[in-house]
Amino acid sequence: MGDSKGIFLNSPLLKSIGDLSAFKDKGEYGILGAVVVGMLIPVLLSALFMGKKRIKVRGVQAEVGGEAGYTVRNARKNELVEVPWKGATTVAALFEQSCKKYSQNQFLGTRKLIGKEVVTSKDGRQFEKLHLGEYEWQTYGEVFHCVCNFSSGLVKFGHDVDSRAAIFSDTRPEWLIALQGCFRQNITVVTIYASLGEDALVHSLNETQVSTLICDSKQLRKLDSISSRLTSVQNIIYFEDDGETKDTASGSLSKWAVASFSEVEKLGKESPINASLPSKGEIAVIMYTSGSTGLPKGVMITHGNIVATTAAVMTVIPKLGSKDVYLAYLPLAHVFEMAAESVVSAAGCAIGYGSAPTLTDTSNKIKKGTKGDVSALKPTILTAVPAILDRVRDGVLKKVEEKGGLAKNLFETAYKRRLAAVRGSWFGAWGLEKILWDAFVFKRIRSVLGGKIRFMLCGGAPLSGESQQFIKICMGAPIGQGYGLTETFAGAAFSEWDDNTVGRVGPPLPCCYIKLVSWEQGGYMTSDKPMPRGEIVVGGFSVTSGYFKNQEKTDEVYKVDEKGMRWFYSGDIGLFHQDGCLEIIDRKKDIVKLQHGEYISLGKVEAALSSSSYVGNIMVYADPLHNYCVALIVPSRQALEGWAQKAGIGDKDFRELCGKSETVSEVQQSLSKVAKAAKLDKFETPAKIKLLPDPWTPESGLVTAAFKIKREQLKAKFKDELHKLYG
Asked: Most exposed: 58, 409, 427, 568, by fewest CB within 10 Å?
């Protein structure tokens, strides 16, 4: 997912606003008259019918065991949800039942590769461009046969069912088929990010003693280079790529038994083996977190954990069913995507696979004239991480500003009216005015994501309130912002579709309780008024078994109460609103005590300063021996070069532009304005900053797959720069 952070920056989404100028060019001023009429109707209706708004109760207090705290459960369920329906207690059982129930429905879709070419840019860099066809589909019934064949073939190929298999690949249909195939033989699967570096990869495979490694073909070269360091791998199964053949007998690969995915599937088809199905308490997945500190930790996730989160989320997404189409492009090795695909497959949805570099019509690997994945698929359900949505918002606003005139005025009026309606008038939210704005303004934006999005899921990191509201209005679909961790298989809290507030992650999912426990050192207490605050502790069916071969860390953050319920101490700080919805406000590890005794929350400051148009990514650093903080900033190239052009600097070299004192001063002033608006204290505003021209990507090891910064890795890499800032 390394390219996903900027996939929309040059997409047609950012160009679609420019099309609004067509109103002026075509003389369609009559639209404005219709809009004015539409605006008056909801105002009159609101005045007649809208009284004081009643607060909908979404979470209620609960009595539980364990450490004292303020505990909330989902208001709709008196008891915790464990399964979506009777008999679906494991992932294998759930999947088999779904495949039989929806056997004739479209399930997994991929795009045929028609051709590829390499183009050279003006600066000499080369880029691969793909010509992709329409989606080609397998039904649920066909996929289930593939899963059974692969499951049998895996054993026939020589995998010892008492050992573990690992999947090391980008997201694709074969990833899901391989996962489910392993589950049918009760084989625990180790999931590894495709972007993981060599040291972390070796650590993950050796620690879990993986005997069979399943990967995509491009990873074979990496495996060849580290083969001497792998202690347990015996078999390699690789996913084929269109039109490519692999020499698997050369180099270090010859020491292993190597076969393609289709060869293993054929082997199983010819020699079927009875399934050996798991129980709900057995370990389904050891998921290696991308980790913000040190080497990745393997989280042991049971079948029951996965099924519980799946059952809970299915109750939250409105009318989820076989008519829905889901676009899969985030890494399946990440808990967010695995949970999402578990949910949509249980509901009988179609899953079309794409990738970050091919997502839109102008994504960097799409050949000109070829549709991007969203245009070809027209999904109804889409997941996204906040980094993507933040840049969508910034890009749209930039295009609006560039167009100016009628287009800008019309967009701003439409947005303000829709925002006011969402916050207040039911009629403005759903009546004639909404229809008019959607038809004449927002339709052009929505078409870029296929035009049929009805629900978006956002997770992996906090989403700013501004971006949440902006995307919701412009895309015309509610955003379900979730909170969860690998340690809770993504199942903790989830905002409901009809909740128009922002900055919150909703009530607890019905599979778990959420408890706030006072943290006196940080000053967060459950007795705080008007809302209780404290460390977020999750208990229930989604809480996982602990860390693989790390009992000390497991005992530190997992607790079992006197009633047998398992609790996970997240280290995140939250507060509960009156309606039972959770808001994430801080993180224990991000708090530093400065020289004069002030506490600074690095995460809070970073979140506030990220709203500057110049900030692409940021890490705030505080030395306890000083009374101020500093910051490393990867600037938004588009915003900074735009400023430079207006300022008459006109440097073509971005690296040189980042080093200019005028540039640093401009960004510093922007941060000061943003900090003031966010009511940050003086010591929370970075006194000095360093602009870094190279982006932080998962491949560089400086951010996670969800683009959360890896603070320790950044501190180590840029220790000289940080030292100079304090010098």
From this structure: 409
d(CA 89, CA 179): 17
Q: Please enumerate in sequence order all residues whose Cβ is within 8 A of that of 727, keeping only pairs 6 or more positions apart, or say none.
A: none
- Which of 152, 381, 175, 364 lies closest to 275 in space, CA to CA? 152
Q: How far is CA 503 from the centre of its chain?
A: 16
Residue pair 713/701 in contact by the 8 Å Cβ criterion: yes
Query: Domain of 193?
Result: 91-314+325-353
The CATH number that applies at residue 719 is 3.30.300.30
> What's the pLDDT band for 48 if we cut at 50, 70, 90?
very low
pTM to 2 decimals?
0.83
The span from the CA of 189 to the CA of 210, in Å, is: 9
Q: Concatenate the DSSP letters of all residues of 614-663 into one string.
A: TEEEEEEEE-TTSSSEEEEEEE-HHHHHHHHHHHT---S-HHHHHH-HHH
Amino acid symbol at 717: K
Cβ of 32: how many Cβ atoms within 10 Å?
A: 15
Q: How many CA atoms lie within 13 A of 582 on its CB side?
A: 34
Dig out the tokens for 554 from the structure: 């497991």
């919805």: which residue's tokens? Answer: 581
Category of 581 on φ-ψ map: left (φ > 0), alpha (ψ -120 to 50) or beta: beta
Which of 611, 544, 600, 604 lies closest to 574 in space, CA to CA? 604
Q: How far apart are CA 423 and CA 407, in angstroms?
A: 24
* Number of domains the chain is built from: 2
Contact 149, 268 (CB under 8 A): yes
We report the CATH number of the domain holding residue 203 as: 3.40.50.12780
Distance CA(664)–CA(678), nearest Å, equals 21
The region, left, alpha or beta by phi > 0 then psi within -120 to 50, assigned to residue 559 is beta
Domain assignment present for 145? yes
- Whether 102 and 322 have beta carbons less than 8 Å apart is answered as yes
Report the C-alpha gap between 456 and 588 in whole angstroms: 29
Nearest Cα neighbor of 413 from 446, 421, 22 is 421
Rounded to an integer, what distance in angstroms lies between the CA atom of residue 35 and that of residue 414? 9
Q: Is residue 245 part of a domain?
A: yes
The pLDDT of 158-185, averaged and rounded, is 96
Residue 219, in any domain of the structure: yes
Give a yes or no: residue 366 inside a domain: no
Q: Residue 136 — pLDDT band, cuts 50, 70, 90?
A: very high
Ranges 4-8, 23-27, 52-56, 655-659, most confident: 655-659
